[in-house]
Amino acid sequence: MKIESNIIGKLNKQDVVKYSLINDNGMKITALNLGGIITEIKVKDRFNNFENVVLAYKDWRDYIDNPSYLGAIIGRTAGRIADGKVELCGETLEFNKNYNRNQGHGGINGFNKKFWKVDTLKDETTIKLIFTTISKAYEEGYPGEAYIKVEYILNNKDEFLISYEGKTTETTLMNLTNHSYFNLSGNHKKDILKHKLKVGSSQYLETVNESTPTGKLLDTKDTVLDFNKEKLLKDVINNNFVKAERGLDHCFILDKDKKIILIDDESGRTLEMTTNNTSTVIYSGNYPDNRALIEGGNYIERLGICLEAQEPPIGYNNAFIEKSILEANTVYSKWTKFRFNVI
Fold first, then answer.
1. Which letter does DSSP use for residue 293 in this model?
2. Which of 63, 140, 284, 303 has its CA 20 to 30 A from that of 186?
3. Which tens digits make up the pLDDT trace of 226-246?
4. Alpha-carbon distance 288 to 306, whole Å?
5. For residue 257, is pLDDT > 90?
6. pTM score
7. Quick one: which residues bind beta-D-galactose (predicted)?
């Protein structure tokens, strides 16, 4: 196993550095110190061809604003904060609003725009990138100075683990995720409509007004959003209920096995995701930004699917806020594991 790095540009007098983790099987994870952005996950198909299974911009400068959050670390909180305000510790907190009436994915300058300090580590069984940063008190409206560590860990079982850790000086909110867009066809040769998806979930969050949670949980059973048996994404996304919301952008409460499986029959690639988060937002690329991608073409609708392992976003009337509260001098600790295979 090996770790590589090289400078690919400069922004505000800081080097933009690309790091790669490569295991003994040839699987490769590449990420930037800007936003912790994952630009490559190269895995083999059934014919032993190694191709990229995440979307990435051709020009790294497009990550400066990164309107689609391609591949980035999201924080301090993932998803919406309804009306950009909450009640916390007896006070009303107001957050910067960047999703119209709401705050989304950490605000105007979220973790996706930070330069992270990166260290590398290699031991007998894993190679890893260790990203660290400090979020100042009341940055984007969040109380407390927060210390964040995110690790990207690769082993020879073709397992990619993302580990999140955080501490804060004051009671605050924290709910981190990664916003990679997966396409198992490889080098996004085709869209995701023929991918199959299986999700161990009996409930999902009701949402209104730009995917903002109402606080109500709905049953998936006997609905188009029941993925307990694998479904073709085309059949789900073309359903009238889902089409009315432009596509999938739903938060699923995970059952005890907490497993999500994505399959592309043509390439034979499979992705199994597990996490210690209680939910996952599944997003089907409903608002493409049409920017050029590294493997050719532009980012268009349905070219990737996000599996955003996280706690439920904060809805109206403080709904689900308890899942995002991090008290002072306690440790936020979450992980998500992606295992790649072929069938």
1. B
2. 63
3. 999 999 999 999 999 999 989
4. 13
5. no
6. 0.97
7. 179-181, 249
123 contacts: CB under 8 Å, gap ≥ 6: none
Two tokens, residue 81: 């904060």
> Tell me, what amino acid is at 76?
R
Q: Domain count of the chain?
A: 1
Burial 204-213 (b: 16+ CB within 10 A, else e): bbbbeeebbb
Backbone angles phi, psi at 268, to 5 degrees: 85, 0
CA distance 148 to 187: 32
The range of the structural domain enclosing residue 320 comes to 2-342
Question: Which CATH number fits the domain that encloses residue 188?
Answer: 2.70.98.10
Which of 195-199, 240-244, 288-292 ranks highest by mean pLDDT? 195-199
d(CA 320, CA 314): 5
Residues annotated as catalytic (active site), given as ranges:
179, 308
Cβ distance 182 to 304 under 8 Å?
Answer: yes
Q: Read off the pLDDT of each residue in 159-186 and give the average, rounded to a whole number.
A: 98
Q: What local confidence, expressed as pLDDT, does residue 37 receive? A: 98
Mean pLDDT (the chain) is 97
Q: Are 336 and 178 spatial neighbours (Cβ–Cβ below 8 Å)? A: yes
User: What is the radius of gyration, based on Cα positions, of the chain?
Assistant: 19
Strands 269-275 and 259-263: what pairing? antiparallel
What is the average pLDDT across 131-156? Answer: 98
- Cβ–Cβ under 8 Å, residues 103 and 97: yes
Helix (H) or strand (E) holding 153: strand 146-155
For the segment 32-38, the average pLDDT, to the nearest whole number, is 98
Q: Mind listing the pLDDT tens digit for each residue in 49-90?
A: 999 999 999 999 999 999 999 999 999 999 999 999 999 999
Give the CA diameter of the chain: 59
pLDDT at 11: 97
Tokens of 203: 């409930």
Q: How far is Cα 285 from Cα 289, in angstroms, rounded to an integer?
A: 10
What is the distance between the alpha carbons of residues 99 and 296, in angstroms, rounded to a whole number? 29
Which residues carry a binding-site annotation for beta-D-galactose? Answer: 179-181, 249
